[in-house]
Structure formats: C-alpha cells, structure tokens
Amino acid sequence: MPRQGLTSARVSAAAAELADSVGLSRLTVAAVARHFGVSDAALYVHVRSRDALIEHVAVRAAATFADALALAVAGRAGRQALIGFADAWRAFAVSHPGQYAATQLHLPPEVGTRSAGHLRMIELSYAMLRGYGLDEPALTDAMRFVRSTFHGFASLQTVDGFGHPRAVDASWQSILDAVHTTLNNWPTRKQEQQ
Prior knowledge:
Helix content is 71%, strand content 0%. By secondary structure, the protein is mostly helical.
C-alpha cells in the first residue's frame, strides 16, 4: 500500500531536485527513498526501477524546459527569437544540470513519443529556425548546429570549463551573433551545387 502523501508526482519532483544537486549519474531509488525517509521498497510502488525513475525525471524536466523555451520565444522572430531561445536554453541547463542532462538522454520510443515536453521542445526548436527561411534538409542540419553550440557552451559553463578571464556572458553574446549570422547565410542545396 502506498505511503500516505507519497505520490508518483512527488517522487518525480524530488528525483528532479536530487538530480540537480547530486548529478543525474548519482540519482538512485535509494537516494530518493532517503529523501522521504522511507524504505526503497516503499518507493517501488511509485517507480519500478532506476531507469524508470530517470525517465520520469526526463519527462518532467522536458515539460519545464519546453515551457521556458516557449515563454522566451513568444511574440519574437528572427534574431530576437534566437536570443530568447538561446538564453532560456542556457539558463535551464546551468540552473538545472541534472534535469537538463535527463532531457538529453535517448529515451525508449514508448516514453519519448508520449512525452509532451520533448515533442514541444522539438517543435519550438524547428519553429524558431523556420524564421530563418530554412527548409529540409538544411533545417535539420541547422538544428544540429544550434543544439551542439548551445549544449556545448552550457555544459562547459556548468563545470566551470571556461578558464580565460574574458567574461563568459561577453563570449555568449559574441557566439549568438555568430550563430545568427551563420543561420542567415546557411548554404542551401542550390548554393552547394553552384
């Protein structure tokens, strides 16, 4: 019988917070059980395994991440949408490193295709890039470029990977200018064939 007050939603929320504080790789069912002061067995009523726990964190985090991205791009287009999107990406990744890591995992199809947050993140990403007039396959190539850039920067910032005295925010702004310029001048198939 489930412990009174302990719900799947509360377990997922606590797991997400723990992922941010201890790191996703160190998140376990036992750690969440300790958080609630219950036995591991009491938690298995709400989550069947560590993998399932990580999946719950990923789905929950993706919804929060998608909300932040949507708010950041609402009513914006082109460069302003890119900046809002990028700043929201970086802020989420740096403020919630464990949850962000969970959103980057490859989930089983039965989980990923039912995760509204993951689907919204994809839609928002492509919608922001369509403002640059890109069509497939350039749209997917540009998305991989943007995702790699933002992910790399945020991941390095999270581990204090920038040792140069130049302000990190100044570098970020320069990078966003470069990304905007690149997207405005993205090669199309017609250009590549000339």
